[in-house]
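Support request from a user on the community tier.

User writes: "When I paste my C-alpha cells into the form, the page sometimes reloads and wipes my input. The last time it worked, I copied everything first. Here is what I submitted, just in case something in the input itself triggers the reload:"
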C-alpha cells in the first residue's frame, strides 16, 4: 500500500482552517464535510471540543450523537 502524503494525515489547526476559509471570495458559501473525497458530504451541525481537539460534527444520525454533548448554539 502506497504511503499517503503528510498533508493528508497532518490535519489543520483552527487558525489554518479559518485562514483558508477567509480566502474564499463568497463568505456566504455553506461549509460541508466529506470523508470520501467529495463524493458525498454532510452539513456541519455543531462545532465542539473533545479530548483536546476541535470537532466539526454532523448530527443527522441522532443515534450517533451523544445527548450530553449537545449544547444550544453549537458550543460543547
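"...and here is what came back when it finally went through:"
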Amino acid at each position: 500500500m502506497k504511503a499517503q502524503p503528510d498533508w493528508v494525515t497532518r490535519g489543520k489547526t483552527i487558525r489554518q482552517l479559518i485562514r483558508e476559509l477567509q480566502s474564499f471570495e463568497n463568505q456566504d458559501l455553506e461549509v460541508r464535510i466529506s470523508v470520501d473525497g467529495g463524493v458525498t458530504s454532510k452539513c456541519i451541525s455543531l462545532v465542539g471540543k473533545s479530548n483536546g481537539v476541535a470537532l466539526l460534527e454532523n448530527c443527522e444520525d441522532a443515534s450517533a450523537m451523544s445527548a450530553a454533548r449537545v449544547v444550544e448554539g453549537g458550543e460543547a
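Agent notes: The reload is a front-end session timeout and is unrelated to the input. Helices lie at 6-10, 14-22. The chain has two helices and four strands. Escalated to web team.
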